[in-house]
Amino acid sequence: MSDSQTAPHQPTVLDRVLAIGQMLQHDMDRSFSDTGLSTSRTHLLWVLHHAGPSTQRSLATALQVSARNITGLVDAVEHHGYAARTAHPTDRRATLVTLTDLGRRTMQRMASEHEQLSRELVAGLAPDEADVLMRGLTHVEGVLARLIAEAANPAEVRS
Amino acid sequence: MSDSQTAPHQPTVLDRVLAIGQMLQHDMDRSFSDTGLSTSRTHLLWVLHHAGPSTQRSLATALQVSARNITGLVDAVEHHGYAARTAHPTDRRATLVTLTDLGRRTMQRMASEHEQLSRELVAGLAPDEADVLMRGLTHVEGVLARLIAEAANPAEVRS
DNA sequence: TATTGTTATACTCTATAACTATA
DNA sequence: TATAGTTATAGAGTATAACAATA
Predict the structure, then answer these.
(1) Residue A11 has what DSSP assignment?
(2) How many domains does chain A have?
(3) Which residues in chain A have Cβ-Cβ distances shorter than 8 Å to B52?
(4) Long-range contacts of B112-121 (CB under 8 A, 24+ apart)
(5) Statement: the CB of B73 is under 7 Å from strand D
(6) Do B91 and B147 sit in the same domain of this protein?
(7) Is the per-residue pLDDT at B7 higher than 90?
(8) pLDDT score at B9
(9) What pLDDT digit, counting tens, does each position of B111-156 carry?
(10) What is the CATH number of the domain that holds A84?
(11) How many angstroms separate the CA of A66 from the C1' of C17?
(12) Within 10 A of B134 (CB to CB), how many other CB atoms are there?
């Protein structure tokens, strides 16, 4: 209980974003119980929902994970009835993964829940406040993108 | 490539927060390479840094994970020299986990990096904009906390 | 009896490497 | 020779259940 050394500083924008992100993750995990879904599996279904039938190769590229990982994720969503493997019409090496009706309905429901949550989160704010909030977040995202790009490419210090 | 059904709607505050959270996670993962650390292990060290020497039981409560999980995390941070198990002075069932010098120095460095990032993320904003951003995020966090509490306790619809 | 931490077991997400079938 | 997807193997994070030592 006793804080040994670090003073509990004022929460910053970074702290708030981290806290909100953690709450969102927690909430998602809870909503997945008994669905056979998870963050990774849902991400895969989400990509399928937007891109339509896809090869596992293209899914691996979209999710930025290994081919082996996609095999496991497709196994899982197929087993739970959200997607199915079908033959590729022209390339017999490849597999096309397609959403089932259940998968499609599930993604549509998630999209509408996402929209509703998007509205609820800012419902109590004045329009101009919501505006500044949005612009502030856009700014933060831009700075972060720049910092990450610099860290990944430490050579040049932008002039 | 072809968006099959969902129109690419305008990004919302929720979308921005999710994107920023993902970037932060990605950046953290990158910074962990070759340190023997990870999000979970760092979280444990962070709690130790603030709470001081702790039993594994209290760490399990603080991180909200199982006792078994703590055994593994402590094994790992001990193996990498960030913390050590010591005997509890009065309860011979319990183990006290304490940070080593390396662990303490690492947490201090992370704290200062966190503070620097906190400053950088809002550095380009006008003071009043940063203010509204902060208040907007506090609002969002509050709404989210309420929604999660309601979802966990669906009985009463708040009057 | 209750609590602390461990071992046993299992599931998910992730990776690399070797291999098969096809291009 | 290169590519798509699988199997083999491994490590991390997570869980529950059974168990030993201690309270």
Answers:
(1) P
(2) 2
(3) 2, 4
(4) B114/A14, B115/A9, B117/A14, B117/A147, B118/A12, B118/A13, B118/A14, B118/A15, B120/A143, B120/A147, B121/A12, B121/A13, B121/A14, B121/A140, B121/A143, B121/A144
(5) yes
(6) no
(7) no
(8) 79
(9) 999 999 999 999 999 999 999 999 999 999 999 999 999 888 776 5
(10) 1.10.10.10
(11) 12
(12) 20
Nearest protein residue by Cα to C1' of nucleotide D14? B69
User: Of A5, A3, A2, A111, which is closest to residue A49 (Cα–Cα)?
Assistant: A111
Of all nucleotides, the one whose C1′ comes closest to residue A72's CA is C13
Would you call B83 exposed, middle or buried from its count of C-beta atoms within 10 A (0-12, 13-18, 19+)?
buried
Tell me the nearest-neighbour CA distance from B34 into chain A, angstroms. Answer: 16
B92 burial (CB, 10 Å; 0-12 / 13-18 / 19+) is: exposed
Mean pLDDT along residues A141-151: 93
Residue-wise pLDDT for A25-78, tens only, equals 999 999 999 899 999 999 999 999 999 999 999 999 999 999 999 999 999 999
Q: Which two tokens stand for residue A26?
A: 């927690």
Which residue's entry shows tokens 């921005």? Answer: B16
What values do phi and psi take at B55, rounded to 5?
Answer: -75, 160
Looking at the structure, tell me whether residues A84 and A148 fall in a common domain: no
Q: Is B154 on the interface with A (CB under 8 A)?
A: no
In terms of residues, how long is chain A?
159
Looking at the structure, do residues B67 and B131 belong to the same domain, yes or no? no
